[in-house]
Amino acid sequence: xxxxxxxxxxxxxxxxxxxxxxxxxxxxxxxxxxxxxxxxxxxxxxxxxxxxxxxxxxxxxxxxxxxxxxxxxxxxxxxxxxxxxxxxxxxxxxxxxxxxxxxxxxxxxxxxxxxxxxxxxxxxxxxxxxxxxxxxxxxxxxxxxxxxxxxxxxxxxxxxxxxxxxxxxxxxxxxxxxxxxxxxxxxxxxxxxxxxxxxxxxxxxxxxxxxxxxxxxxxxxxxxxxxxxxxxxxxxxxxxxxxxxxxxxxxxxxxxxxxxxxxxxxxxxxxxxxxxxxxxxxxxxxxxxxxxxxxxxxxxxxxxxxxxxxxxxxxxxxxxxxxxxxxxxxxxxxxxxxxxxxxxxxxxxxxxxxxxxxxxxxxxxxxxxxxxxxxxxxxxxxxxxxxxxxxxxxxxxxxxxxxxxxxxxxxxxxxxxxxxxxxxxxxxxxxxxxxxxxxxxxxxxxxxxxxxxxxxxx
Length: 458
Fold this sequence. Notes:
Layout: E1 2-10, E2 14-21, H1 23-40, H2 53-83, E3 97-98, H3 101-104, E4 113-120, E5 134-141, H4 144-157, E6 160-163, E7 173-181, E8 193-199, H5 210-213, E9 221-227, E10 241-255, H6 261-267, H7 274-306, H8 315-333, H9 337-346, H10 351-379, H11 385-395, H12 404-417, H13 420-427, E11 429-437, H14 438-443, H15 446-457
Parallel strand pairs: 5-11
Antiparallel strand pairs: 1-2, 2-4, 3-4, 6-10, 7-8, 7-10, 9-10
Helix pairs in contact: 1-2, 6-7, 7-10, 8-10, 11-12
């Protein structure tokens, strides 16, 4: 069938395969297709299955030749792919694309056909140095202030909410109804909101009315004039001034528990004293910091190694990962894909726009994974045969015996891949960088500045 074939590597992790199919194979498949249709087709003047091949060919010959020849080309492509070098075979994500299809048509009787397909292949690159590197990581200190803040969070979580008779103050939980007023002082129906509950000082309300409600008493109604700028982050209201009627229907206050041994025991049975509570928080933070620093070390190392090499990623590989990320995103929102796209449309975005915002991060992730995979293959980490067999016995119970060997290879790869990052952590060094408190490390350095500004304003 395949009279000749030639494969060549292209730029951008792609390859082109050119194939020649001999005319004898093409004519054989064409004749078989004609005979098949002659038995099945219904044409006026002939009984089903009794249509002469010559009549069928005269009426539908060109379309039948086109159909059968494309099928012959597809079979020839499958045959040719078996014999080309492994490093020039298409990756799983890539479908070979037929080139210059128009120039092949119409297919002519008795002629060989030469055609080309282009597809993505596994990237080729030289591994840069991946041992003996030095990477800087933050130096994290868990301070008494960090522990104090956690205790305040626990106090807030264990607070008792009680109805308050006095005026509303920052930190109180209030229930309000509000509406914009038109020039005549009438409520605009589409702006009314009844029995809305929020905590004063949180800013969790559309019109930013926290300071306006402070000082109000239960049952009181007042009208305020509000002017907004871009900094207020009230969508559609920047540069506008409105009148708003607010009615306060309920005020509640939070009573925080005292920090004593009883409070410590309420937080966790294992704690008997406040000292136990503080030490428990410190231990939890230390474990969290250690885990986060481990991820930072791994990511920083992979980034440093990746920065020393450059190679083109197959677009089909990146697109497949982006599509998977989109499905995960849709799943996390709990919405069907069509509703996700409606949500994006409301933000003047399309699915494609969203995927593009993820492309750079996705490419970096894939590049890092390919480098780690290459390190695994080069180092060829030993695998405990007993452990490998145990995992195979557990995982392959329902797999047919004939297929188990290939699956065993996959499990071995997984076990070897799990050794790559520990190997890199051992073979490289880490120096202490910027000193950070726990809060700065977990929530970002800007959190300390935000807290200072808040206290100064108060």
